[in-house]
Queue: 4 jobs
Job 1
Amino acid sequence: MSADRLPQWWTGTPDNIAALLSAAAAFWQDTNKSRSPAVGHQREGGSQ
């Protein structure tokens, strides 16, 4: 995905980007916490 193909709200409003990154970070942490902390790596997930 190149930058010129992003919608204007993405490139024109840093606040939206910050909010999106914050939401993504929170979701990522919740997803990691929901997994078994002893495993660490996503072994059952395969290559991803």
Job 2
Amino acid sequence: MDANTLAPTRSPLTAGRLDLSLALDRVNQLQAELETLYGQAARLTQGRAGEGAMRAFNRGLLRLARILIPLNYVESDQFDQDAALGLPPLPLLGPVDRLGHLEPGSDAYYQHLTLLIRRRNAVCFALREAIEAARSTAAAMAAVISHG
């Protein structure tokens, strides 16, 4: 995931109507944390770490997968079923273009804006959780490597 993931949601139709700056900042922050984590993982492949570091890395990857896979591949929650159709990156924000086709100030506009704000908040929350997962995994691996 990188900043281009949010590119489809930055349409001229929605410019100034939905602030995605926090989501973009978190995508960039997650990218930096993942680079640190992958740097730690490179030490694993060079044989400089033991089994404890491998376990910490695997636990961290599972945690990240539980956060990022739903964020990237589903629009609904765990109790609904998404259609088996192509989805945009970050499907929760997929309907963002519809906002540009609604009359500003109308009930439909505000209802859709509220939906998108809630979904943006869900995306930002998931990204914050992923940042913490990557950061804590890298720290756990570093601790095991330095003591091992």
Job 3
Amino acid sequence: MRYLSIVLSLLFLLAIITFCVNNTQEFTLSFLGYRLVVPLQLWVLMVTFFVAGMVPIVMVEIPVQIARFFRRRAVKARIRELEGSLARLAPSAGEPGKEVPDKT
């Protein structure tokens, strides 16, 4: 499955590169009365708008990932603390995994 994903990703990248190389016609951008008169190739416009669309996503996701990192680190520290206290409280009863018979 991993190799299939890599192959599909490479094929998709190849299709995008082929599209960009074959569409070198220049475009003039106009929107709501604004007109960009600098002739740009289509791949330049696509990359520009892709990056412009990714900026808000990255700006929102960075604080979320930082908070998730600190929360994960705190949980791991708490797990280590609980495992340490459990090891101190529970007497070792021989081999791990074997049931200890009750002597009552």
Job 4
Amino acid sequence: MSSVSQSVGDAERQKNIFANCFWGKDDAGFEVLTTRLKQSKQTCEEVKNLFHERALIEEEYAKRLSKLSKIPVGKDEIGSLHDALETVRQELEATAKEHIGLSQKIRAELEQDLADFIAKQREKRKLQQNVVEASLRNKQTQVSFAQKAREKYESECLKLPGLFESKKTAVGKEMEKLNSKIEKTQLAAKAADQEYMQMVKIAADATQKWNEEWKLACEVSIQSIMNITGMYIMNITDEGWIRF
């Protein structure tokens, strides 16, 4: 394989890595991903509430069926009609038990499982988000410090052309004052340059740390989203609660 083909292949693989899809101006990808996670959490809550309401409906239906099965019907009848009415009563009672069982199953196997899942995902998401947010704040702070240091350096440098221009017409003590001022300004510019270089290094380190933690957060987030999606599919298509 040629080096060009290999480079193209590497570039394509990098494009297909989930963590490489959330980089952009002003760290906009952070907001995109956190918003998607919040939406997934909201959907989880909505699905859990759906299960809760379905369980209540099944419970209420079961109670009404059970109450209906206890209503006396044809108590004075005998023979086959009596037997038929008793069968109806028993069927109502059995159906009531099925629906109360379904209600309990939804609560225990779907609603509670999803509630536990939401709690675990919330804990993981919060821990990861705290790390990422702290890293992002640090990066933004250090970049801001570097920008201010650059502005300070440029400000000192901009003073020098005017001072050198003034020397062309200065004489005597005025010349001595200008030379002293030029020397001080040059020293200040040199110190500002050193400070700027130091702040750039710190900002670069902070940015690198942010990049690493953000990439990890992206991978953790896609796993979280996949887990949530899997939980939706497993619960929503569970035959135990959709067959009635």
